[in-house]
């Protein structure tokens, strides 16, 4: 009886024509991902500036840099929060419904973006500690937005274009990364014009004007704007019909909710549609393991492996660009000039590689298929990364950085026209509706962030001893202030 009431609702959703509300849902859900990417990756743009402002050492031949433990914390703490947020909000979304939780995650992101920018104190350590505290909670909100956005879009979409719709939501991440770079370019250029400063080699103190402290705060704070603008529309979205019908067991309410936003005819005769025994297996049951155990293993393993490389490259682009000579030595630039050049380089990579890759996936995923896109993406990433790593000394020679940048951009193109998109889409489609948000996070992003956070801390420590990890995370040849003071001791400790 229950299935007879639920099936008409599900069938109507599966065969519904693409309508205006589908695009509204893409924008509303996608702006969450826009904000996620902006907030997660804008920190990599300003870490060198933070080092110059708060960790300058008198007499050092190079500008100040964040100590390795501080750099690891500032860059990685948001990902620890993301893991925690996924575990909590994914579970909560399956218990209380997507709609109730969806607005909470966005508001948390807004508040913590602003609070991160207001990290004031009397000592550098206190400023960094406050920044890390609020970035943890920012990551906590981002972690909740991740599984819920994918799940909501998959449950609104029809069967024919579901992959493209979920991919379009995820593609907003590319615009978030690119916008972070553009904002950094505009803010740094404006302050650079208003407050000219000499290179560090000419005047170490004057090379970082006092007004530079406002620059990184403005960049972080602006991450709250897109999330705040879409908060109202999130609260107006009805609960997804699939959740209401399959989890809340109310087929009539599901039909009524979807009839308000989609031009579909759905009928349900009773307020309650009892769940069938067929779908009643638990999360940790043998039946779940039999049906979805391999799905869980496959989604988690592929996403884990992909994001170790993908997130590390995104966060350490500035160091890679310096290593191959695309960005000049830090001592030859002022603080704002260095930020401007880093932002310009990362924006170019996003424009030429990252963003097009996402939208190729949107256009072709329902034509080519998930498996082919993922397999080709992994293969091409491997080819291009080997092409960067094996002849690494060639790429670091003067005049060869253009070829390096082209291959580097192609790795991002095939990451996004490949596994970075497909590993996001598949978990939202294959798990049962009542466990979808929980299993989405269990099967994918939980393991990613653990692997990424571990990888990040190790990579930063190795980078800070100037060990060249070919193409992935080569360090700057110019030693920073903390290296100047204790590099040899750190090398001995790590060895």
TrEMBL record:
Entry superkingdom: Eukaryota
Which Gene Ontology BP annotations are present? phosphate ion transport
> Which keywords annotate this record?
Membrane, Phosphate transport, Symport, Transmembrane, Transmembrane helix, Transport
Any single GO molecular-function term of the entry would be: phosphate transmembrane transporter activity
GO cellular component entries: membrane
Q: Where are the transmembrane segments?
A: 20-46, 101-120, 126-144, 165-194, 214-233, 348-368, 375-395, 401-418
Its placement in the membrane is given as: Multi-pass membrane protein
Instruction: Please tell me whether the keyword Membrane is annotated for this protein.
Output: yes
Query: Where is the Major facilitator superfamily (MFS) profile domain positioned along the sequence?
Result: 25-495
Transport: present as a keyword of the record?
yes
- Localization (cell): Membrane
Q: SUPFAM superfamilies attached here?
A: MFS general substrate transporter (SSF103473)
Q: Check the record and name the Gene3D superfamilies matching this protein.
A: MFS general substrate transporter like domains (1.20.1250.20)
Which family, according to the similarity comment? Belongs to the major facilitator superfamily. Phosphate:H(+) symporter (TC 2.A.1.9) family.
Q: Know the name of this protein? A: H(+)/Pi cotransporter
- Organism, by scientific name, is Oryza brachyantha (malo sina)
Q: What is the lineage of its organism?
A: Eukaryota, Viridiplantae, Streptophyta, Embryophyta, Tracheophyta
């Amino acid at each position: 009886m229950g299935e007879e009431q639920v099936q008409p609702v599900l069938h109507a959703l599966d065969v519904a024509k693409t309508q205006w509300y589908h695009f509204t849902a893409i924008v509303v859900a996608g702006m969450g991902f826009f904000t996620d990417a902006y907030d997660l990756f804008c920190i990599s743009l300003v870490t060198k500036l933070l080092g110059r402002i708060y960790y300058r050492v008198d007499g050092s031949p190079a500008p100040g840099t964040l100590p390795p433990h501080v750099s690891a914390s500032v860059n990685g703490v948001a990902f620890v929060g993301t893991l925690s947020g996924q575990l909590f909000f994914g579970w909560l979304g399956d218990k209380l419904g997507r709609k109730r939780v969806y607005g909470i995650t966005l508001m948390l992101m807004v508040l913590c973006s602003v609070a991160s920018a207001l990290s004031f104190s009397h000592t550098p350590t206190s400023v960094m500690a406050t920044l890390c505290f609020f970035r943890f909670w920012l990551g906590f909100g981002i972690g909740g937005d991740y599984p819920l956005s994918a799940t909501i879009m998959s449950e609104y979409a029809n069967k024919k274009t579901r992959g493209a719709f979920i991919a379009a939501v995820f593609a907003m991440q590319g615009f978030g990364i690119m916008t972070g770079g553009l904002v950094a370019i505009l803010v740094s250029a404006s302050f650079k014009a208003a407050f000219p400063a000499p290179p560090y080699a000419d005047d170490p103190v004057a090379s970082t004007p006092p007004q530079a402290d406002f620059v990184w705060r403005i960049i972080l704070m602006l991450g709250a704007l897109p999330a705040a603008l879409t908060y109202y529309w999130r609260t107006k979205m009805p609960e997804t019909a699939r959740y209401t019908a399959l989890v809340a067991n109310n087929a009539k309410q599901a039909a009524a909710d979807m009839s308000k936003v989609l031009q579909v005819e759905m009928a349900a005769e009773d307020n309650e549609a009892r769940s069938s025994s067929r779908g009643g297996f638990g999360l940790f049951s043998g039946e779940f393991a039999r049906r979805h155990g391999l799905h869980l293993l496959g989604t988690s393993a592929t996403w884990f492996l992909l994001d170790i490389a993908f997130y590390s490259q995104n966060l350490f682009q500035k160091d890679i660009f310096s290593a191959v000579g695309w960005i000049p030595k830090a001592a030859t630039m002022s603080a704002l000039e260095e930020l401007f050049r880093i932002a310009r380089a990362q924006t170019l990579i996003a424009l030429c590689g990252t963003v097009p890759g996402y939208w190729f996936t949107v256009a072709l995923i329902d034509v080519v298929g998930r498996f082919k896109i993922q397999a080709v993406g992994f293969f091409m990433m491997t080819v291009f990364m080997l092409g960067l790593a094996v002849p690494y000394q060639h790429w670091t020679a003067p005049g060869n950085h253009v070829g390096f940048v082209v291959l580097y951009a192609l790795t991002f193109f095939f990451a996004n026209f490949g596994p970075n998109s497909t590993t996001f889409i598949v978990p939202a489609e294959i798990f049962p509706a009542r466990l979808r948000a929980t299993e989405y996070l269990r099967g994918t992003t939980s393991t990613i962030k653990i692997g990424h956070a571990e990888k990040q801390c190790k990579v930063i420590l190795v980078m800070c001893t100037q060990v060249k990890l070919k193409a992935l995370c080569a360090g700057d040849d110019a030693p920073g202030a903390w290296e100047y003071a204790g590099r040899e001791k750190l090398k001995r400790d790590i060895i």
